[in-house]
Model the fold of this input.
Amino acid sequence: MLNLVLLPGWGISADCLQPLAEALQQRFPKAQLQILPLPRFTQPNLAHALTELQEQLPSTPWLIGWSLGGMLALQLTQQLPVAGVITIASNACFTQRPDWPWAMAQEDFAAFQQGCAAQLTSTLKRFSLLCSQGADNPRQLAKQLLPFKQTPEQASHGLSLLQQLDNRQLLAQLAVPQLHILAQQDALVPLACSSALQQLAHQAHIATFNGSHALVIEQPAALATRMAHFIREADDAE
Done:
């Protein structure tokens, strides 16, 4: 049985993954497919969040994660057997490190954290615009990015996890099939990270699409086709 699990990004409703889920279901009619909302992050504790997600996962799933969901999907490979991992618009580190400059600047991230604590609603609207920046019609796309209902404290905890996560060592060691999809006009995850990701994960497949960080909503059919090809190739190789 093919189990496909989709994980959304920070601050955005899991419902936004429905078009991608439907496109994948068309390509795998017999697959069991679920969209798994992220935890509400009642504390900035990665282990707690991973346990909450793991308890809802089926046997040996394909994990497909967008942005923070992709970073958490990689972490989940240490918790249970998975068939493979596909990330969409996910970085090894979301914020810059001295040895990982291909990410969001720490001062920009800090300003974003402050905005969440002070004015969550307006900050989420700004985040939606950043997600859609680079799209053909960014404002129309931003309106489709429904916010995830959470308190300012929960939003801040989620951001803390996003800042803490460093998947570089995990990417280098991961043995399961992995596909990392990046958007060429992404305003949050620089396309420049693609070469560094490939150097980290020699065995990984990396694909780029024309689009914004909200690629999952812009091009669900094209993404599903690329993912289906990768999943079938990986299954045939076993």
